[in-house]
User: What shape does this take?
Amino acid sequence: SAVISQKPSRDICQRGTSLTIQCQVDSQVTMMFWYRQQPGQSLTLIATANQGSEATYESGFVIDKFPISRPNLTFSTLTVSNMSPEDSSIYLCSGAGRGEDTQYFGPGTRLTVL
Amino acid sequence: QKEVEQDPGPLSVPEGAIVSLNCTYSNSAFQYFMWYRQYSRKGPELLMYTYSSGNKEDGRFTAQVDKSSKYISLFIRDSQPSDSATYLCAMSRRGSTLGRLYFGRGTQLTVWP
Assistant: This one.
């Protein structure tokens, strides 16, 4: 299984600013994903990070708000842009290797927007 | 109707009890079923993974899938305080490398000594 790390682990940000979250995997994975976990809610998929091309976004999420990069098979970033208090949440990245049918998660980034 | 329903609890049991956690779902196309454990301030950790219907056992944990009833369960035998966590069910139509995961809200479990 892949070991996934995220930076920062937590942050407190001001309204209108942007935060970039980094996700690093210790081995090459085929797929990388970004999720949001709001209090009392299930994990919601934001997008699939595609290597070398634009991410695939789920309904309700747009590139202008959540730009994603994935320059190689082990690294991805998610930016939360023009933040508002409604963006306060835990953001998680996950990865799945070739031939695997499950995903492994990073520890999450706890974001608070004031 | 949400695609995956899971009672959020909280559930509180004494050490040694048998714990039963459940999820129901509406999409008959789901074929892959997973249980994740999430400790406070940590990411979800994969516990069990099953394909289609049937049972799977791993130590004190047993996962059951009943596709005819669209119902999955996780049983924990001889529960321990270290099992205290939030348990998330997840499922997908295809393998996760190709298809998205659909999660329940999670059930918060406390096992007291």
